[in-house]
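Dear colleagues,

For the upcoming journal club I promised to circulate an example of a predicted protein-ligand complex. I picked one with phosphoenolpyruvate because it came up in last month's discussion. The inputs are reproduced below in full, followed by the predicted structure.
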Amino acid sequence: MIVIMRPQTTQEEINMLKQKIESENDVTVNVINGKECSILGLVGDTTKVDADKIRANEFVENVEKVQQPYKLSNRLFHPDDTVIKVKNASIGGDELAVIAGPCSVESEEQIVKIAQDVKKSGAKFLRGGAFKPRTSPYSFQGLRARGLDLLKIARQETGLPIVTEIMSADMIDKFVEDVDVIQVGARNMQNFELLKQLGKTNKPILLKRGLSATIQELLMSAEYIMSEGNENVILCERGIRTFETYTRNTLDLSAIPAIKRLSHLPVIVDPSHAAGLWWMVEPLAKAAVAVGADGLMIEVHNDPANAKCDGQQSIKPKVFEQLMNDISKIPGKTIHKACDTVNV
Ligand code: PEP
Ligand code: MN
């Protein structure tokens, strides 16, 4: 961190600030006296230094951070990609991690059938919302605890690990027991109390980017989970709000190479919530794989026209099968089908 002093600040005032910063933080301050102004260079762990507090000093012109405020998720201190193992599958390794399933669990028949279909096409995880974060309180809220039971039945039938969204900290014990990957949805990305509590578990956490969150804010939310001890965090780009209204959100493809550069954590893409249009899922999924995503999360429904939630953006199992075949031809990660391996 660098503190730029205002011109004409005296050496005495500079020394006072140097001593104040050193006494309040675990850092050493080096003073560089320039012709016009002086600069203080803070050396050490600056993650806990309050830049705004220093900025409030009347002799300070500005404070610049040279280090990122996130440490545990930062690739600088962990050059190798993190690979998160979930049962027989993994996220972040050589294989493309594909999570597929309906927006919400609706019935045993529905979730088991979709699970079987997506597994056949090469999905490695089953998704399905039991507790749904809906904009309107009058919309379908999910089957809740019954939805979790049905996901467990689908897991038993197919062996696919289950991914589902948690909405409040009081459900953590139940989710830790029942679920393989706990999803934190876009609307809860900055529910810091929830993140801290999830950090005390050792379950993989799928953290979706908030509707208007910057990449740095997403990484800081990952940091909340990791700083409590749980380093099993998977990031998910799912589109952000822009001025464009044609699509539900705008898929920020540039976030993938950006996050891969800044962090060692695996990054997946959800083209379904990004576009909000079923026919756009295929091209966006391909683009996501092409820019280096570690996986995809795709909404698949056997009867989208009658889906209780997000039917307009759900693809049918046949379309999903075709998409998986097409994606296996894109250079990069491999897709292993239930009985064969497609090399790319
Ligand atoms: C979901 O994946 O079911 C979901 C609600 O997504 P998001 O939090 O990205 O809106
Ligand atoms: Mn949905």
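Two points we might discuss: The mean pLDDT is 95. DSSP finds eleven helices and 16 strands in the chain.

See you all on Thursday,
B. R.
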